[in-house]
Amino acid sequence: MTNVGTSAFSGCVCLTSLEIPDGVISIGSAAFLGCAGLTSVTLPVSVKTVGENAFTGCGALTTVYYNVSETAFGRISVASGNEVILAAEVCFTHSFIRILLLPLKTVYAVGEEFEPAGIAAALFYDDSSVSLTSRLGYSGFDSSSPGTKTVMASYGGVQTEFEVTVTGSADPVEPDPVRSDPVEPDPAGDAPRIVVDSVTCQPGAGEVEVALRVENDPGFFALLLKPDFAVGIEYLGFNEPAGISGFGAVTDSNINLMAIAMADIEGDQTILTLIFDVPQDIPYGEYAINFVYLSGNDYDENLLDFEIVPGAVIIEPLYGDMDGNGTVDSIDLTLLREYLTDPDNTSVSDGVDVNRDGAINTLDLTRLRKLLSVNA
Ligand SMILES: [Ca+2]
Ligand SMILES: [Ca+2]
């Protein structure tokens, strides 16, 4: 069967769910017209067209199952009168699921409840596309006794499993902060690399941009990233790069995951610019911006290799800026001279240790003079 004929099931009010068999290419006009009891329909990968008014009068239809990706769904030609299909929740079913990152909590005390926070899974579709989710269903967790426990995780009816530990101790054991062994970089150096920049700025810098770059002529089209941003800097969002065609990026609402897809790209590229807010009251220090990423475009076992990519926003004083006005100039030089002569009656900013050796002395004056002569 390659077609569902015109008006084939028109008015079948008893029809509640419908699975159109694989191989059907077109659904005829008015095929399911007035099937008021229909709540879900499963469309096969083979469907190319949905005829006029095929689902008119199917007011209860709220769910469409489609076993390929969202991109492929967008290519189906849907004629008018089928708004219900376009308004329905489309469940893009998939052939298998892989856990990319385990939940943050994998060690439990007896009696504790399961906490899925931090989990990430990839859903693999028949057309070789992949998407990410952290919204899984769970079953099988049993903390009534100690031991290694298998938790079933499912999405759209497809299951996978992972293990957690229940300890006999009444006190919960802190989970190991190291989540997975990073894969050693390819010694031949021919694997694509993801690099996150480290950016130095001063407290109160406001919006600071940190580049996420890919190096070594990757040519791949999908990146799955799990960001981990230090507390203190606030993630505001990202800017997409100019000049990469076929680029798309999504994050979930809590920035637990980022999926980035792009057409083949050549050479080294900035693929995202992450934006962070650096407040005035932030303490000096290094604020980590880490990503765990999954590489490759062949969906085989190698896909599950992880690499942890470190970057940072480094907050430090503006060295040489004695009066803390954000610029280094001859006024600062005067102020430093005064400070060295009369430290008790001269106030200077944290940037006074110009050469960063921990002492404040004439070496800092020398360094500041050099800085000014370079900048002049
Ligand atoms: Ca100044
Ligand atoms: Ca010094």
Explain the overall architecture.
With about 375 residues, the chain is mainly β. It is built from 4 helices and 25 strands. It has a 6-stranded mixed beta sheet, with no helix packed on it. Strands 1-3-5-7 form a 4-stranded parallel beta sheet, with no helix packed on it. The longest helix is centred in the last third of the chain and has 14 residues, at about 360-375. Mean pLDDT is about 80; it is low at about 175-190 and about 295-305. The structure holds calcium ion (2 copies). The site of one calcium ion has 7 residues, from helix 4.
What are the salient characteristics of this protein?
single chain; 376 residues; mainly beta; Immunoglobulin-like; 4 domains; six-stranded mixed β-sheet; four-stranded parallel β-sheet; 35% strand; binds calcium ion
